[in-house]
Design goal:
435 residues; alpha+beta; Beta-Lactamase; Arc Repressor Mutant, subunit A; 5-stranded mixed sheet; 15 helices; 14 strands; globular; Sig_transdc_resp-reg_C-effctor; DNA binding
């Protein structure tokens, strides 16, 4: 045996490096976070290094709920996709950006970071470093954000069917709201143009008329969000009257006579999406018919057979309205989205007759598993009543609890379901068979 091997083994005295366990635990928490909790986990991870009043993630990978938020409710409940999209467009790369930005309805200091591959955006409002003399905090926040953004991509790519159903339901609701706003803007602009072009108004009268119309449109637009959130069902007569009021300014200046045939007063209430779609479809048909030079009169009629809303719009033109016109095709897509039917009958020399059928009940869906939401029994009861379109006061009366208690449960439901409004909660509940 050699002299070397005869020597006893010596213990090393070099200490092992101290591992950054808090950071490693934070990374592990982010890696395990479900999509519904990733904003909260990321905010918990960043607060020790960079304080903030709220954290908002904007990612188009999650089509149904592109916003993921944590922090002060005043900010998280009011921040809009338009604000986030505008802020993202100002960032050219992944470099952290500090500055003032319009967020949640007012200008406020923010830190914004963009993820290169997904274009996801992270926004921290009112950022303030916990250690002002050290830049390590910002570096750690940037590192944690990249992990979170990458995990969002991976989780969406591997999403189970239940998540995809929820996402589709929330996306459909957002599309409906956006379409309603678009229709309102289109009608307002058409009305303003009609007033400005009218030969029966002088300049002063035209300015007065346009100012009045614009002011009313702004008030209507501001009230639209609350109306959309609260309105789940609407009497068919009320929905038709709103259509008439929406179209009154346009028909006043168009020079075309529009006749409204009212539906029966005792017709079945319309689901919110059917009422909104019906008004949008009639507005679209009316505008398409008014584009024809030979139309002087249009008649629109609603009826309800208990299972469907029946719409008929007819003009007195020469029968030039084409069923394959882009405007009609767009309207047909909206009808098909509600599993309805649109039929155009063109009568040369006698005009066009359009019939629309919109089912009041959506196709039956299999009941999904809601266990993953971890709802308390009372929360599930409130959600079931919410899914049927009941208001807080009605739910309180039915369950024998106070309205404030219902509001408390609804806030908890929004948090657990990761939704921002009653309409999103209802859409999500419907996608799981709760009605």
């Amino acid at each position: 045996m050699s002299a070397t091997t005869d020597q006893p083994l010596q213990k090393t005295t070099t200490p092992l490096p101290v591992l950054p366990w808090p950071v490693l635990q934070t990374v592990a928490a982010l890696a395990d976070a479900p999509l519904t909790q990733i904003a909260e986990r990321l905010r918990d991870a960043t607060l020790p290094y960079l304080g903030s009043s709220a954290l908002v993630i904007f990612t188009e990978d999650c089509t149904g709920r592109p916003q993921k938020k944590a922090g002060e409710e005043e900010i998280t409940s009011r921040v809009s996709i338009a604000e986030l999209d505008t802020l993202r467009s100002t960032l050219s790369d992944e470099t952290p950006w500090f500055g003032e930005a319009e967020l949640a309805g007012r200008s406020r200091p923010v830190l914004a970071l963009k993820h290169a591959s997904s274009q996801a955006l992270l926004v921290l409002t009112d950022p303030h470093p916990t250690d002002p003399g050290n830049n390590t905090g910002l570096d750690l926040v940037t590192y944690l954000w990249r992990i979170a953004a990458r995990r969002i991509q991976e989780k969406v790519a591997d999403a189970p069917p239940s998540y995809l159903l929820e996402s589709r339901a929330a996306s459909a609701e957002r599309v409906r709201v956006t379409a309603e706003l678009t229709d309102l803007h289109s009608t307002t602009l058409e009305t303003l143009l009609a007033a400005l072009r009218s030969s029966s108004l002088d300049n002063a009268a035209a300015r007065t008329t346009v100012t009045d119309l614009a002011a009313k449109a702004l008030v209507r637009l501001r009230a639209h969000s609350d109306r959309t959130n609260d309105l789940v069902k609407e009497p068919v007569a009320t929905a038709f009257e709103r259509l008439r009021e929406d179209l009154r300014p346009l028909t006043r200046f168009s020079g075309i006579e529009v006749e409204f045939i009212e539906p029966p007063l005792n017709g079945r209430d319309l689901p919110g999406e059917v009422a909104h779609a019906a008004r949008a479809i009639v507005r679209g048909l009316l505008l398409a018919m008014m584009e024809q030079s030979d139309v002087s009169r249009v008649r629109t009629q609603w009826d309800c057979d208990g299972e469907n809303l029946l719409i008929n719009v007819r003009d007195d033109g020469r029968g030039a309205l084409a069923a394959d016109a882009p405007s009609i095709i767009r309207l047909d897509r909206r009808v098909q989205a509600l599993t309805g039917n649109l039929q155009v009958d063109v009568m040369p020399g006698w005009g066009a007759d359009v019939f629309v059928t919109l089912p009041l009940d959506p196709p039956a869906r299999p009941t999904g598993d809601v266990a993953g939401w971890n709802l308390a029994p009372r929360e599930l009861e409130v959600l079931q009543h919410l899914a049927t379109g009941q208001r807080n006061r009605t739910i309180a009366s039915t369950l024998g609890i106070s309205e404030n208690t219902v509001k408390f449960h609804v806030r908890n439901l929004f948090k657990k379901l990761d939704v921002g409004s009653r309409t999103e909660a209802i859409a999500l509940a419907h996608s799981h068979g709760l009605r």
